[in-house]
Specification:
Blueprint lengths: L1 H22 L6 H19 L1 H21 L6 H7 L13 H12 L8 H29 L1
Helix pairs in contact: 1-2, 4-5
Family: Belongs to the mitochondrial carrier (TC 2.A.29) family.
Membrane topology: Multi-pass membrane protein
Keywords: Membrane, Mitochondrion, Mitochondrion inner membrane, Repeat, Transmembrane, Transmembrane helix, Transport
Length: 146
């Protein structure tokens, strides 16, 4: 992380000086700061750590695709509502949460309300864990800064 921050700062410094020189301005402006930060991020992503970003993303998204293809298709109520086709003049079968719950339970039985539950949990659980770690880390940083 320290190397990455150092690389980003070095790229930010380089692009800041370059843009000041190109525009003939003597002081950094808000617009130049945004352009400088964006350029530094792009430089870091494409030049400084291409192996990490290119190989990591390929492996990550390749694995996610394979895992999703192996899991049963999620069929939670939200998915049915979002997947409903809109025909002019016709009310969709699944158009609102509570009526959709009743329709599914009546037509397919109460157990059908849990179709897709396991894949949904398997997908959301890791993200929730990462989110909690990030929140705790960030709060720790703010607590130390007081």
């Amino acid at each position: 992380m320290a190397i990455s921050l150092y690389d980003h700062s070095a790229a930010n410094d380089y692009w800041g000086k370059t843009y000041l020189k190109l525009t003939g301005q003597s002081k950094m402006t808000q617009e130049l700061a945004i352009l400088t930060g964006s350029s530094a991020g792009a430089t870091e992503s494409f030049v400084v750590v291409p192996f990490d970003h290119l190989w990591w993303n390929a492996g990550y998204f390749g694995c996610i695709f394979k895992v999703r293809s192996m899991l049963p298709k999620p069929e939670v109520v939200k998915s049915r509502i979002q997947g409903a086709t809109n025909v002019p003049g016709q009310v969709p079968k699944y158009n609102w949460t509570y009526p959709a719950l009743l329709t599914i339970a009546r037509e397919e039985g109460p157990a059908a309300l849990y179709k897709g539950f396991a894949p949904k949990v398997l997908r959301l659980a890791p993200g929730g864990g990462v989110l909690l770690l990030v929140v705790e880390f960030t709060l720790g940083v703010f607590r130390k800064g007081k």
